[in-house]
Amino acid sequence: MNSSSTQYLNFKRMDVYEPMNPFSMWGDFKGNMYQDAAMIIEVDAKIENQLSEDTSHTTHGHPNRCDQEASKPVDKVRRRLAQNREAARKSRLRKKAYIQQLEASRLKLLHLEQELEQTKAQCALMSGGVNASQPGFCGAANSELDRLVQDALNHYANLFNIKATVAKADVCYLISGVWKTPTERLFLWIGGFRPSELLKVLVPRLQLLDQQSHDLYNLIQACQQAEDSLSQGMEKLQQTLAEAVACGQALGGGGYEMQSAMDKLEELVRLVIQADYVRQETLQQTLRNLTPRQAAQGLISLGEYLQRLRDLSSAWAMRLCEPA
Fold this sequence. Notes:
Region (Disordered): 53-74
Domain BZIP: 74-118
Low-confidence stretches: 1-27, 58-62, 128-137
InterPro entries: bZIP, bZIP_sf, TGA_domain
Radius of gyration: 60 Å
Number of helices: 8
Shape: elongated
Largest sheet: none
Distance between the termini: 184 Å
Structural class: mainly alpha
Helix content: over 70%
Subcellular location: Nucleus
Number of strands: 0
Main location: nucleus
Strand content: under 5%
């Protein structure tokens, strides 16, 4: 009963309101449906446009940014590597310059040490065993050595004057070196010793400074040039003398040709005098470049060298006299 009354009541309420128009409701539904569909289509279109824009940005814009972001670290690394290489190159150059400077300083120090040792040795030689505390010992020793060296130079000057007189009297006898030993004659050059060869013997026996060695080396070069010039003159003179003698023999020993040969011998006298002049000048300039102690030592070494040549000749002669 309650249910029927409830249904009744419900129907009665529905009767109170206006009857519903099903077509209008369907029309409204259809209109709303079309409107909603249009709105859905419009929203879908906007979503698709947004997605397409995002896709385009993703496909075009994002890779460029990625490339740029990726290229930035690579460029930075390259710049850093280039800077490191340049810094390493400059460091190597500085190290090389520093090593060269150290080597130059080392050589300079070694050179100074050698000069100091040579100076000490020369001072020890000049002292001659005299106590250095004695006043004026060095000056007195040098004065005495200067006097002895000058006496030796005067002796050689007198010797060269005598040789000039002998050359004018008999130049062939002088050039042949009859008064010398056989071993000395092996080294004979235009009536005497070769100045350059004698310097080569003396220089190693002397404790020289660098400047002294340089000066004596230049003197050796000058001596060799003078010797070459005189040797060429000697060869030419021998050739012309041989031609004059041969021409005189072909013509039956005519007086004119013999006089020409005699004139060539006079030229030989002048050649010997020039060779002695070179020897004397070489000796004087050598002693001038040395200290008194060195000059005295050089003259002593010269005498010892010549004496050893004589001793060698004597030993050879005694060997020949021994029975087989």
